Queue: 2 jobs
Job 1
Amino acid sequence: MLVFVIPLKSRQFSKSWERVTQLFERCIKSVCHQTSSEFHVIVVCHEKPDIQFNHPNITYITVDFPQAKDTKYINQGRTDKGRKILKGLVEAQHFSPTHTMAVDADDCVSRNLAEFVKNNPNSNGWVINKGYKYQEGDKYIYVKRNDFYKMCGSCNILRYDLNLIPENPEYNRGYGYYKYYIDHAKVKNILKEKDINIKLLPFPGAIYMLATGENHYYDGTRLNFSIFNRKTLNQSIRDEFGLYDL
């Protein structure tokens, strides 16, 4: 079974809590729109968001970790994210997952992930090599044909033991303690150095939402959209990823 872990930023750290909540509601609807019922979702947050959507496969874990003091400092937000991912992964063991996937709280994912994992329970895991990137309100969506996992945090599906969870997890440490859970682009190579190979997911697995106003990090290069990778945002893509306009 696949367990998704969604770390949600706090109201205090948000530029707009209303916007964060809207993005999160679309994200969790997307995650729960799986073709297989064999999945669970763990949301780790400081405060539970007020949304209308409910699903029996969702568990909310509220935490009181020290919160970032200044939104200008990226590492403060990323450390908070790392703590929450680690907490979610620890909690995930209660659902006996074969695999887990961390999902950024503003992205959308393919509805085919849980079924794919169900059919491949013994795999080390996968990185999402091909996906989409999208800017809110655009009539086009852009294909990222390679190295999607290097730009988007919703990208690694790992066999549970390959999360390398510490024997005694700590939640009051600095940025370096959580780097494995934060630096998503490096996970594939870190495991390769341990002679553990994870595969490329054989289909587009996620949509990276850009310039939401609440991203922890993005730069101008990520907003450069080539017309050669552009395609009309059709209903088929919307249905597979649960993408709707906010």
Job 2
Amino acid sequence: MSMGRVVCDLTISADGYSAGLNQSEERPFGDDGGDGWGDNLHAWYADPEEHRAEVDKMTAARAFIMGRNMFGPVRGEWDRPWNGWWGDDPPYHAPVFVLTHHAREPQPMGGGTTYFFVTDGIKSALEQAREAAGDGDVAIQGGATTINQYLAAGLIDELRLHISPLTLGAGTRLFNGVPPLKLEQVTSRAASSVTHVTYRVLS
């Protein structure tokens, strides 16, 4: 059976940050010049119809992988019940494999999403996601730290960046710790509040 691609989508500032400093449960994107919920960095989400093609691609994967902080704030030993940032009906509607150091039973959610908590590393998470996806794509959902690990390991085929017209100056940055990459630009589209760029990762 043929396998799908490993893709990722990430919104970043013009200077490459996916979140500002001082991330917390109340401010998951830290200091982005707004209220901390990414209202500046992710302003383009306010008009999903303008970005329908990009949004459809983001949700087309058959399985997803995310870092623990993308699921929810770091809590040591899961010290209280926590369903993540994404509410009772997350947008994935597919299996989601969460990288963590703390084991937890699978967590079914509304709409067909189930979170699986993976404690043995990025390659194990990818193997499980590939099996779940069949011949469909696997999406590395983020954040930037998780994407950087997969880029450094040479495990991403397509990188889709959504570049917001602002700078953050500090925070969590894409490509930190990643060896030099050769990228082939596949598409580029400038919209009113963001530029969408897709790269094929060659090496």
